[in-house]
Amino acid sequence: MWTNTCRYITKNPLLLTLLMILLFLPLIASWGQFLSSGFLRETVSVSLLFWPKIDWKVAVQLPGWLIFGVISLIYTGGILWLVQKKKLGQAFLFILVGLIAAKAGGAAFQAISGWSTTQPIGAQSLAGKANLLVFATWHNPLWEELVFRGIPFLLLTLIYRRYTDLPTGARWIYLLIPSLIFAYYHVPGHGLGALFESFLIGVLWAWATLRWGLLAPVVLHIYADAMIIPSLPKMKNMPLEEIPWLVNHSMLLQSIWALCVLVFLILVLALLIIGWRKARKAY
Can you tell me which residues the record assigns to a coiled coil (predicted)? Predict the structure, then answer.
């Protein structure tokens, strides 16, 4: 019954429209920032192999317009593919609930262990780093999904010569081992307090890959990081002179985001009640 209810909710056209607006808003904000600041004309150092707090890394120099254009195409293509396959609503709602649960689990772990997290970037000096911060919210989640979910999944498909219906043991290995490495990867930048939360989130992204394919966690992981972009003018110590486009359009962007979230929550609740009643009558 609950499966039918969820299907009813996630196929609603108004819900999908709201989701697409929410997903594309950070992309629009980022393009506005990069075009107005001239960032797209600059050469950007794109990290291919690195580890937080370690100087060694492998990087390539690419034009800003090229690398962000490619990321934008991957993100946009992923959204449209999820819509075409009728997976966007289901994946978004599942990830939303999963992230809330992971945050709660992480908070409980911090309270029990006594370990703390480091200060978020919003509390640090960001002079001269505005464009790099915006770019990192797109590059980092894409890189993490390709490395921690994409490469292990590719290895499993090569070993078992199939990408669906993997053996149970292989699924558990995929869910746990890369997620442990993913959690450890976040310790240098976020502290030991983030260890359990990062592990749970890693399991969440891995499960989403097995359930909906790699594009689902790529799109939703990017959005989970990039959704802060329209709100950058409110971040502490953010150099406002470096983000004039976002400052000038912050009221519009944040109003659209808040309105979409409000309507989205009301719509989900209404559809949940209607869908549950319909599913109950069917049984």
Answer: none
